[in-house]
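Let's study my pick:
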Amino acid sequence: MSALLALLGAARLGPIELSATWADISFTAPTFQGANANVTLTFPGGAREIQLTYGEVGIEYRINSGSYTSYGAPFSVESGDTLNFQATSLANFSGDVDIFDVTTDRAVDTFAVNVDGY
């Protein structure tokens, strides 16, 4: 009975959130890009849709050490995937990249991008 009650309680809470932390990205001219390390995503259930918000800097993402893809719209990840980000800029920039799990309607992480020397 207590297992059933625990299961019902978990169902009311909704999907368990994706929790991950990415390092900040910093680089100085003449380099025009920098990346953070892969983070392995772990969460129960099916795929999650990830949305990014950021300022005037190019952001690309890479899943499972594949090719970088320019961010333009939410993208899908599965539990067990690795994910990292790369920033590109030809001008000084300092700002945050916010990562949001659209599937669960929850914030995941924020990392900073700092570019100088231009």
